[in-house]
Amino acid sequence: MKFRTYLETIEDVSIYPMISLFLFAAVFAFVLYSTFRLRKSDIEEKSNLPLEQ
Amino acid sequence: MENQQIEKFFYDNKIVKQFAIATALWSAVGMTVGLLIALQLVFPVLNFNVAETTYGRLRPLHTNAVIFAFVGNGIFMGVYYSLQRLLKSRMWSDKLSAIHFWGWQLIIVLAALTLVLGFTTGKEYAELEWPIDILITLIWVVFGINLFGTILTRRERHLYVAIWFYIGTWITVAMLHIVNSIELPVSMLKSYSFYAGVQDALVQWWYGHNAVAFFLTTPYLGIMYYFIPKAANRPVYSYRLSIIHFWALIFIYIWAGPHHLLYTSLPDWAQSLGTVFSIMLIAPSWGGMINGLLTLRGAWDKVREDVVLKFMVVAVTAYGMATFEGPMLSLKNVNAISHYTDWTIAHVHVGALGWNGFLTFGVLYWLIPRMWRTSLYSQKWASWHFWIGTLGILLYAIPMYWAGWMQSSMWKEFTPEGQLQYQFLDTVKFMRPFYAVRSVGGMLYLAGAILMVVNLWKTAKQGDFLPEEEAQAPALAKKVVLKGKEHWHRIIERKPITMLVLALVMVAIGGLIEMIPTFMIKENIPTIANVKPYTPLELLGRDLYVREGCYTCHSQMVRPFRSETERYGEYSKSGEFVYDHPFQWGSKRTGPDLAREGTDKLRRMNSWHYNHMMDPSSISAGSIMPAYPWMFKNEIDLASLKAKMEAMVTLGVPYTQDEVNHGSELAMKQANTIYEDLKKDEKNLLLGEEGLQNNHEIIAMIAYLQRLGTDIMIPTNEPVK
Questions:
Q1: How far apart are CA B305 and CA B3, in angstroms?
Q2: First to last CA, chain A
């Protein structure tokens, strides 16, 4: 329950922001690439879903 | 597909109706309380000298009512209507729908009661005490089961983008609520945050920021993606853009929390991380805005006539403005000016009044005539509502932007001799006309909302409600016939649970990478040997500080600026807050910062505090602080002390067993010292009906205020003011 069990040190804490940035860049690039490979017919079908009923 | 049997089923409109009525009613309640607290800042007499109606208790009621009662019910109204239709399926369980609805209303009522009675955790937008936190969790799970039950038994293979936003909302809100609400109960209605100081602040603003992101934004984007195409009768502008901005938005949002803590004692790397991700947020946010607005391409003529679209266009525009401004406010140099001022209040109200409010109104105007199978009672009234509401937003936001800027400039202004130009009180007096105009803006906005309620009531009365709406669709085939290689996103769209897990992974990564180092690395929170736990009496005083919601106007965080160190003293160090369960850094300075209130630089006599709490404006002419006469009647709650100290020990505060056992005696010993000191000056005291007593709450309050910020200060033996 107590916060006394600190790890004494983690070297180079600044690695954490860097990890986050790279993670984001990777995920974003993947989403971007794959989204543009979607089929046009698929896209149209889906974007019309709210208008069906 | 052709040989599949067409199934007949019914959409449940009753649950949508219930949430719609709740949305309309709570909007009036939440805004009325908002108007009252706005007026209290102009006319402090409106605090009525009653505990239950003071600003510090009503402000949390306002924020909670607007976020969780008004927008909360608005979310459920939109989700329950659109989900059924997008999935061609009735809600999975009528019983769970009903439990969800009544459970949520029960939470709201309990929240309203406990907040005004002073039961609060003291963490902004998470003020509700632990039994209600548990109830929220249970009801949220009920909602989740119903949501996923419906998704899993749907008749439409594809999950439209709105539903992803609903899934992302559900899982993230669950995570945020649980992590931020971890607290140690002391009694039925009192608990202490598990985290302390910097860690508590980081968790709280990770939660607070993402409450904006995943309660006020993502579900409303889902609603936007359904209702704007519906109202405009044309598909969304770019479905591709919606995919990209969905994943980018949920991934980036979760990191941005630390921008609420710039220049505080939070480690610098975490602040920078918050800033960078906040700037990046412009892209996905504007992706959503552009997608919403461009859906209306070629239909702008409709916007001129259709009041529903008018509301929606202004809502999406306000979303665009607020999400541009947010990242700007996350820049450290802008934040240095804006933070703790009413600029922030203006910013959030562009979001709340413009984006959430107007989108909800648009949906209500669209939904009610349809479910009641009639047309809107009065288009003219609705149009009036639109213009009154828009004017209300302007009259609210403009004076507050202006005021915030002036406030900050005055705080930072030095004379040529290098002295601070203005007393804090000067800035308070300066704000009054701005607060007055803001109240007029709020009043107009509320008037518009009331006009809407009447209009919708009349619409319902002239119509005929359809509780069960018949629909037909083929059942979903068990096996999918694939044509060629399938795209990955199509696969996860068909598998909502995979989608859920992916969304959770996305948002959990952000939280973990931010928090783990702050929790684990000693160098992030350097310990300071001088910092000692609060004395038993100070601890009780601190609980009163939390109970009265002092943090709604006073910060406890001196930032490292000359204008602040000159005014308040040494800037705050992270190590000073290690025993603060919960932290009380605050987020706005309607009154001055109190982090160094007890130090020689600011220290005032006990009698000053005594009189000031009894009647602030008689001590500081022009003060808008409420009076706290009940603290001069209520007795210090010594009975709870042992349990409180034991809880603190469990949380890691180093009280000795002896201190815990003799807490009450120690508290009364310190109380007597203060009492004796006050006694010397009794003829100058503003006494309550019961006169000066050593066991009134005010004594504990004074003990706490005199302690603030003293740990790391070396006494200078300057005379006390």
A1: 44
A2: 54
How far are the Cα atoms of B43, B70, B220, B376, B386 from residue B307, in angstroms, in the given order? 36, 21, 19, 10, 7
Q: What is the per-residue pLDDT across B54-108, written as a single tens digit (0 to 9) for each?
A: 999 999 999 999 999 999 999 999 999 999 999 999 999 999 999 999 999 999 9
Q: Do A16 and B269 touch (CB under 8 A)?
A: yes
- Which candidate, B128, B45, B145, places its Cα nearest to that of B94? B145
Nearest-CA neighbor of B256 among B312, B215, B212, B216?
A: B212
Choose among B488, B517, B651: nearest Cβ to A1: B651
pTM for the structure as a whole: 0.93
**Is A50's CB within 8 Å of B244's CB?**
no
Distance CA(B357)–CA(B319), nearest Å, equals 11
- Put simply, whether A40 touches B (Cβ < 8 Å) is no
Q: B249 with A31: CB under 8 angstroms?
A: no
Using the predicted structure, report yes or no on whether residue B137 has a pLDDT greater than 80: yes
Phi/psi of residue B636, nearest 5 degrees: -60, 135
Instruction: Give which of B521, B524, B527, B653 to mutate to test A binding, by max A Cβ within 10 Å.
Output: B521
Best of B10, B79, B164, B247 to disrupt the A interface (most A CBs within 10 Å) is: B247
B582 preceded by a cis bond (ω within 30 of 0): yes
Whether A29 contacts chain B with CB within 8 A? no
φ, ψ dihedrals at B592, nearest 5°: -70, 165
Q: String of b and e for B79-108 (b: at least 16 CB within 10 Å)?
A: bbbbbbbbbbbbbbeeebbebbbebbbebb
